[in-house]
Specification:
The chain is of the alpha/beta class and 249 residues long. Helix content is 32%, strand content 25%. The strands form 3 sheets. Strands 1, 4, 5, 6, 8, 9, 10, 11, 12 and 13 form a 10-stranded mixed beta sheet that branches. A two-stranded antiparallel sheet has the order 2-3. Strands 7-14 form a two-stranded antiparallel sheet.
Length: 249
């Protein structure tokens, strides 16, 4: 299984802090946002490589960072060739770019790189193996406004996805979908043809939504609440809060 990190955004909401530096490599205490995530994923036996897809502007920064790491699994950094937010490929196209560039034909764990996480991806991988299907994550979200800003799924009693909507005005459930996915090898032809078949390019949830309409998908419920299991760093204020709460600064 390949671990593919989508890290080609430009983090414009963080202003000068990320104008010339990638958000996933911002420090939180003694580590970085990305480093904390890979520390967990690197321990999963099924993972055999970390692939970081980034843009040309930050490519060498990621390469320099990767050269200083000591993970058990190989770290590969891929340059998507873009240099501005206006010319970015979008998360789905970045994934397809990495798949084509590296000729990927394996199960994939696909993760966004701007969250601090307080659970193990190992449980997610075991869930996908048990279900033998591509999978998404979900967590209980009671706030309707937050549900309107994310993906929302309807599940049956076995956690099979019956319906998924991106940013619905009238959410059909309280199951919110964070940006972490497993796409099995048997579904990669669907992934490769998704954009040509009308899948949205920008948000990573667009691909999950597309897959839910074309194959069997299950959702792993994160235990507890989303707020206790992950911390989304999307602004200067949330970055400062993360440094204080989790980095000791």
């Amino acid at each position: 299984m390949k671990n593919i990190v989508i890290a080609a955004g430009y983090a414009t909401r963080l202003g000068d802090l990320t104008s010339n530096f990638p958000k996933p490599l911002l420090r939180i205490g003694s580590s970085t946002i990305l480093g904390r995530m890979l520390d967990d994923i690197d321990r999963i036996p099924e993972i055999d490589e970390h692939i970081i897809i980034t843009n040309h502007k930050f490519f060498h920064t990621f390469e320099d960072w990767a050269a200083c790491q000591n993970y058990q699994k190989k770290v590969t950094v891929v340059d998507d060739g873009t240099e501005t937010n206006e010319t970015r490929l979008g998360a789905v196209c970045d994934l397809l770019f990495a798949m084509e560039r590296l000729d990927i034909d394996d199960d994939m764990l696909v993760v966004a790189a701007d969250n601090l996480l307080f659970f193990s991806f190992g449980d997610f991988v075991r869930f996908a193996k048990d279900k033998d299907s591509s999978c998404i994550m979900c967590h209980e979200q009671k706030d309707p406004e937050k549900l309107r800003r994310t993906g929302v799924v309807v599940l049956d009693g076995s956690n099979k996805v019956l319906d998924m909507e991106e940013k619905p005005q009238a959410p059909k459930s309280t199951w919110a979908v964070p940006p972490f996915y497993i796409y099995l090898k048997k579904d990669l032809s669907l992934v490769r043809n998704s954009v040509a078949d009308g899948c949205g390019k920008d948000a990573p949830g667009n691909l999950a939504h597309y897959l839910c309409d074309h194959t069997t998908m299950h959702a792993w419920p994160m235990t507890g609440t989303g707020e206790n299991l992950r911390f989304d760093i999307g602004s200067l204020d949330t970055y400062r809060e993360a440094c204080v709460r989790f980095g000791g600064k």
